[in-house]
Design brief:
The protein is an alpha/beta fold and 361 residues long. It has helices spanning 2-5, 11-15, 31-44, 72-82, 93-101, 111-114, 117-126, 144-156, 183-192, 202-206, 212-221, 248-256, 273-308, 316-333, 337-360, and strands at 20-24, 49-51, 86-89, 106-109, 134-137, 162-166, 197-200, 226-230. It folds into two domains: 11-256, Aldolase class I (TIM Barrel, Alpha-Beta Barrel); 268-360, Chorismate Mutase Domain, subunit A (Up-down Bundle), CATH 1.20.59.10. The structure holds phosphoenolpyruvate and manganese (II) ion. Residues 26, 230, 240-241 line the site of manganese (II) ion.
């Protein structure tokens, strides 16, 4: 079609902008929704790429699974009206073909696809000889080999521009996040692939609106190259991921509230390996503290239970068991028994304090 050819985007130039801002709905739902979102995003003056899910890999059946091929012309139209290049998720060879037929500018591999080497290989095969840039989300499980393996498969297909998207990792039990960021893994991945674009996806990390800015800020502080944030003209009524989407206008406020690195900030190349290691330590510490806090919340629940059943707070036998379990792993973990004893004593004392508070309440 003649009209579409008029939109010429220098995509490598777009991708080299820092910070790169990708936004758009979790899912393309209707033509009107896609166009209205794109127009309002363009009006913010801050968005570089329009994203939308066309095929949605959903955890459970029965959720909205995307509009499929019929949504692709909506994105072409959105690009034509706003000039924004488009990005979608692909999970099969056929989806790659359809996306390319419809002029999509950037493809991304979703977290549920990155975990499966067969699927990644199928996508990579469909990308042979194609110029389109590909962003690869981290797998849902915290496995850098798997993430790196997906990068290698796509690179072997000849794709020149590959980027990474850090969207957090699923974990069992309630955490503050929908997908735990485990920042140290993203940092490690960045160190393994120096120079590769690294985008943060606060929407899928948070799973809600109120933490988006905090997570995006952290990503910027960690020298990520940009963020991908979901937006929708009517977030509350979105067909997927309603809780984490924001209107384009709210997105603008959020972006304006971020403290962006200034131009005269130290260039990433000049940060020494030593400082990088220190940053990693800080992030591991943050996560240790989160885990300890989670442990105390479990101790609180046990405290309630013991109180109701009139059981003593201190149960020496249980405590010996906990220490024994840790001792058995000491060597493998490279930790001394002296350290484990001191560590568990401190933890135990804090648990007892927590439970005592519950007994006295
Ligand atoms: C998405 O970006 O809408 C998506 C499905 O993300 P993820 O693959 O990170 O779950
Ligand atoms: Mn989503």
């Amino acid at each position: 079609m003649e009209r579409e050819k008029m939109v010429v985007t220098d995509i490598s130039k777009v991708l080299s902008k820092k910070p790169l801002i990708i936004s758009g709905p979790c899912s393309a739902e209707t033509e009107e929704q896609v166009l209205a979102t794109a127009i309002r995003l363009k009006a913010t003056g801050k968005v570089d790429v329009l994203r939308a899910g066309i095929w949605k890999p959903r955890t459970r059946p029965g959720s909205f699974e995307g509009v499929g091929v019929q949504g692709l012309p909506w994105l072409q139209q959105a690009k034509e009206i706003t000039g924004l290049p488009t990005a979608i998720e692909v999970a099969t060879g056929k989806q790659v073909e359809e996306a390319l037929k419809h002029d999509v500018d950037i493809l991304w591999v979703g977290a549920r696809t990155t975990v499966n080497p067969f699927s990644v290989q199928e996508v990579a095969d469909a990308l042979q000889g194609v110029k389109v840039p590909v962003l690869i989300k981290n797998p849902i499980n915290p496995d850098l080999e798997l993430w790196g393996g997906a990068v290698e498969r796509v690179a072997k297909a000849g794709v020149e521009k590959i980027g990474l998207i850090h969207r957090g990792f699923s974990s069992y039990g309630n955490t503050e996040f929908r997908n735990a960021p485990m920042w140290h893994l993203a940092i490690d991945m960045k160190l393994r692939h120096p120079g590769m674009l690294m985008i943060n996806d606060p929407s899928h990390i948070c799973g809600n609106r109120h933490m988006l800015q905090r997570v995006a800020q952290k990503a910027i502080d960690l020298d990520f190259d940009g963020v991908m944030l979901e937006s929708h003209v009517d977030p509350d009524n979105a067909w997927s991921d309603a809780k984490q989407q924001v209107t384009p206008e709210r997105l603008l406020e959020l972006l304006e509230g971020i403290n962006w690195r200034t131009e005269d900030a130290i260039a990433p190349e000049t940060i020494t390996a030593f400082e990088k290691l220190r940053t990693q330590i800080d992030h591991v510490d943050d996560e240790l503290l989160q885990l300890v806090s989670r442990r105390m919340k479990l101790a609180d629940l046990i405290g309630e239970y013991k109180k109701e059943n009139n059981v003593t707070i201190l149960q020496a036998k249980r405590w010996t068991e906990i220490l024994e379990r840790a001792f058995n792993k000491a060597e493998e973990l490279g930790l001394s028994k002296e350290f484990l004893t001191r560590y568990f004593d401190a933890i135990h004392l804090e648990s007892i304090n927590h439970q005592t508070k519950i007994y006295n309440s």
